[in-house]
Asparagine--tRNA ligase (Oceanobacillus limi), 430 residues
Amino acid sequence: MKTTIANVSEFEGKTVTIGAWLANKRSSGKIAFLQLRDGTGFMQGVVVKNDVEEDVFNLAKNITQESSMYITGTIVEDTRSPLGYEMQVQEIELIHEAVDYPITPKEHGTEFLMDHRHLWLRSKKQHAVMKIRNEIIRATYQFFNDNGYVKVDPPILTGSSAEGTTELFHTKYFDEEAYLSQSGQLYMEAAAMALGKVFSFGPTFRAEKSKTRRHLIEFWMIEPEMAFVEHEESLEVQEQYVSFIVQSVLQNCKLELETLGRDTSKLENIKAPFPRISYDDAIELLKEKGFTDIEWGEDFGAPHETAIAESFDKPVFITNYPAEIKAFYMQPHPERPEVVLCADLIAPEGYGEIIGGSERINDLELMKKRYEQHELTGEAYNWYLELRKYGSVPHSGFGLGLERTVAWLSGVDHVRETIPFPRLLNRLYP
C-alpha cells in the first residue's frame, strides 16, 4: 500500500511503500540509517543487513544524497523520533541516482544557498518554514471566510500608485504607462462598497533599495477592507486575526516549530487584546530609552520599533501618527487634524511592523484637498474619488505582510527564508 510520511501513524505495524528522496544517511556496520523525505515530512528508514536481500543492503549503504526511490517496509513506533515512527525497510527501488548534490550536510554560505534556493528548499528547516507559511495562509482564509468576508482579487498591473510614492516598478501597458501594484488597497475599497467586507491575498512590489532583513522587493499581502467599520473596530479585527493565526500555527505546526527550535512560550501568550501606545507616547518612550534625537513628526525605523516592542510581551499597536508621514487617504483624528486614525502593529522580538492600517477618508471635499496636496491629478485616480461621491460610508482596512509574519512565528532572522524564491535588491535568480 502506498502512503506518505505525514500519514504513517495510520499504518503502525503494517507494510507500506513511500516515494521518497534521501536527505541524509549513516551506517553502522550491519545497519544503515536512511533519513527520508517525501515533501510531507521527514522519517528514518532502518535497513538491517540480516533482514534484507544483499543487493538491498548494498544499495542502502551506497545510495547518494537526494536520490529518489520507492521504499517499502513496516512502520513501527519510535519514541526518539520527532515524528514518533520509523520504517523497518524491506525493499528499495531506485528511481533516480543523484550525483554530486551541491548542498551537503556541511556549512554553506548564505549566497551559495541562495544561488541554490531551488534545492535549499528541500532542507528540513526550509521545509518547516514553508509549512508554517502555508498554515498562516490556510488560517487566514478560514478566519475571513468564517467572519463573512468575500475574497476579491485586485489587479497587479495598475495605472497609479496606491500610496503616492515613487517606489514603483514602471512598465509599458501597450501605449499607456503602468506600474506593478504596491498594494491592492484602493481596489479593495471599491470592492468593500460593493460587498461589505472583503479581503485580498496576493503579491505586491516595492522598488525600495533596501537590504535589511525585513525587506523584500516582491512580497505577499493580506488586505482586508470593511465598509461601515471605524478605526477602533478595525483594531479589534486585527488583533483577533493575528491571535487566530498564531494559535493555529501553535496547534498545527508543532513538529515544524520544534524543527526550527522556536521558543513557543513566547507565542502562547499572543492572544487579543493587544496593548496600544500613541505616537506621542512612543516618542517619549524612545527618548527615555536613549533615542534623544528623535523628534515629533519623524517616522520610526527598525531600531525604534524594536525598542518600543521591548516594553511589551505581545504585539503592540502604535496609533495616531502625524498626517505628514502617512498616506493621503487616511482619516484625520476628529480632535487633532494633524494626526490620522491609523495604527502600525509591531511584532515582538525585533520583527518590526507586520500590519499597517487606518480608517479611510470618506468625505469627498476632504479627499479632493488631499488630491491637491499630493498632486494626484489625472484620470488615474478619478475612479477612487468617485467612491466618495456615490454613497460614501465610514470604512477601514489594513494590510498584513505575510513574510514578516512568517519570520516572526518561525523565529528565522531574515525574510529571504520565508518566501519560496525571494526577490532581493541584488537577486533575481533562481
Observations:
- Residues 124-146 form the longest helix (23 residues).
